[in-house]
Amino acid sequence: MEAIYSDKTVSITEFKKNPAAVLRKAKDKPVAVLSHNKTSFYMVQPAIFEAMMEELADRELTQKVLARLKERSKAIEVDVDEI
């Protein structure tokens, strides 16, 4: 059985009838839009989507930092004034 990551769900048929009404009813909560009882997509407020994108970017940056820290022994010391 597929996990649904939302407390609120709506069928795609109902969603197509009036997406704005679904958004209003959700009251800033994510909504899983279902097709044949399986999640087709999630509808989220822009602020939630932006927060998710920032979190993903932070995770990517963290992975880069950790990878570069592992290569620290290969670093060459330089004097900024000489550059």
Describe this structure in words.
This protein has three helices and three strands, in the order βααββα. With 83 residues, it is an alpha+beta fold. It has a single domain (8-72), classed as 3-Layer(aba) Sandwich (YefM-like fold). A three-stranded mixed sheet has the order 1-2-3. It is elongated and about 65 Å long. The relative contact order is 0.12. The mean pLDDT is 93.
Low-confidence stretches: none
CATH fold descriptor: YefM-like fold
Bulk shape: elongated
Which percent band covers the strand fraction? Answer: 15-25%
Largest sheet: 3 strands, mixed
Count of DSSP-assigned helices: 3
Helical content (DSSP H or I, runs of 4+): 40-55%
What's the Cα radius of gyration? 22 Å
Structural class: alpha+beta
Q: What is the strand arrangement across the widest sheet?
A: 1-2-3
Number of strands: 3
Number of domains: 1
CATH architecture: 3-Layer(aba) Sandwich
Q: What is the mean predicted local confidence, pLDDT?
A: 93
Element-level helix/strand string = EHHEEH
What is the end-to-end distance? 59 Å
CATH class value: Alpha Beta
